[in-house]
């Protein structure tokens, strides 16, 4: 049985869902993304493969996204708005929620 103080998210990327333990739910989204990029599974391998370029050669950045229950679209959770770092609570993400990894190509 899980400790009630633990915080987990179901993270979906490329049709794979992984239950990911979040150490500090109040950490900035950029910190959570960095932690996820380096997270390894029980087999010692990285949980997700984060390609740094897409098929066309454009560099990729990654964002978290959450489904809007009213319109059933994935909304990007920006890690920073203005000078303010965003956290999970800013997007109403709760323990046990499902969020998505969204690759975002940017001009090189």
Helix-strand blueprint:
Layout: E1 7-13, E2 16-22, H1 29-37, E3 60-68, E4 73-77, E5 80-81, E6 84-85, E7 98-105
Tell me about this structure:
The protein is built from 1 helix and 7 strands, in the order ββαβββββ. It is mainly β and 108 residues long. The strands form 2 sheets. A 5-stranded mixed beta sheet has the order 2-1-7-3-4, with helices on one face. A two-stranded antiparallel sheet has the order 5-6. The mean pLDDT is 88.
Distance between the termini: 47 Å
Helix vs. strand class? mainly beta
User: In terms of per-residue confidence, which ranges show pLDDT below 50 for 5 or more consecutive residues?
Assistant: none
Instruction: Describe the main β-sheet briefly.
Output: 5 strands, mixed
Backbone shape: globular
Strand order of the largest sheet: 2-1-7-3-4
Overview in brief:
With 108 residues, the chain is mainly beta. The protein contains one helix and seven strands; from the N terminus they run E-E-H-E-E-E-E-E.
Task: Throw out a few tags for this protein.
single chain; 108 residues; mainly beta; two-stranded antiparallel sheet; 1 helix
């Amino acid at each position: 049985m899980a400790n009630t103080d633990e915080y987990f998210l179901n993270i979906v990327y490329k049709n794979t869902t992984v239950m990911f333990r979040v150490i500090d739910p109040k950490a900035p989204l950029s910190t959570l993304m960095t932690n996820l990029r380096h997270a390894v599974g029980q087999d010692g391998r990285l949980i997700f493969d984060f390609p740094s370029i897409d098929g066309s050669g454009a560099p990729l950045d990654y964002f978290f996204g959450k489904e809007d229950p009213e319109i059933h679209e994935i909304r990007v959770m920006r890690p920073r708005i203005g000078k303010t770092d965003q956290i999970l609570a800013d997007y109403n993400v709760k323990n046990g929620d499902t969020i998505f990894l969204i690759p975002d190509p940017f001009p090189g």
